[in-house]
Amino acid sequence: MKVNNGFKLVKIIDSGKAIRCLCKNGDAIRYHSNWLRDNSLDSMTRDVNNGQRLINHSDFSDIYIESVSLDESGENIFLTFAPENKKITFPSNWLIKYKYDKKIKKIIGWINPNLKTWDKSFSKNLPEINFEEAKSNKSSLYKWLVSLNKYGFAKINRCKIKSGALVEIADLFGYIRETNYGKFFNVKTNVNAINLAYTNLGLNPHTDNPYRNPVPTMQILYCLENSVTGGDSIVVDGFYAAQLLQNQNSYFFDLLSKYSAHFEFKEKNKVHLESERPLIELSSSKEIITIRFNNRSIAPITNVPYKKMADYYKAYNLFSNIINNPKLLVKFKLNPGECFIIDNTRVLHARTSYSGEGTRWLQGCYVDKDGLLSKISTINK
Ligand code: FE2
To answer: What integer best gives the mean pLDDT of the chain?
Structure first.
């Protein structure tokens, strides 16, 4: 691999509307004058404490580069912008890090390289930590959080067996997102259930609350009692399932990612939540970013054209079959004091049915994923 450690030649092109930089490894990279001015690193452009931009790019619509040069080592590049006669220095490697003059691979359905997809075999090596270690050892906590992000799943054991203790687990990496279900909610048998999750029926793999906008991004499920027969927890990597769908039938993948499904949840005179989003959501660069899959809360789909609806249902069925394939299911029994955390934008969860004898009592809550990513980035390990 070629190491890039600065520029050896720079020149103005397009009458000052851009520059062309020749890297020491031979690569040539172009940058526009507007982009360079907008991203200037000086204290008049960026606040020195928080990095927030202090200028407005529309103030520089007529800007051009009057001069450009390098220092002797090629590590710094000096620019003069006209007509404001603004002199700015950039470290060359900063510009190389943020280059945008590159070929973009048009891969549809790619996955962030920091993530690793998994199937059933993942159950042999689940990322786990004990609560006390997570609280007291920053290095262990960091490794566990990185795994949580990488796999979209991790377990935490030997927590306090006390109602509400899951709040302390959320505190390890983020902030609880309160909903109409409260700060946290109980998942327990309830004869007068308003939601099927509160019965002893099995639940197929699903993501939670796709009817919310935005959807909850992380979920903690925490066990207080589990003396029933059955009631095992199951998780499935939705990103992996989406890639399998694409490999098996790219047309079906396109249907589920291009057209929005419709999700709805109502509790009479109390709550009415609704959203329209694809089952497989892609970013503008076609990265898989969110899976929404919940048979219980899917509402009449109206955003798929008549001539595509029959195929859409075939695609939905195939995706469902892949998700429910035993080769993808990671199954485990959650014991009191244990909990698991999932990325609800990626990993589906399920449970097997359980008998009425004994008690199965879980508590759950939602946490925002940006808090997890921020913690990983800033933790003093
Ligand atoms: Fe759920």
So the answer is: 93
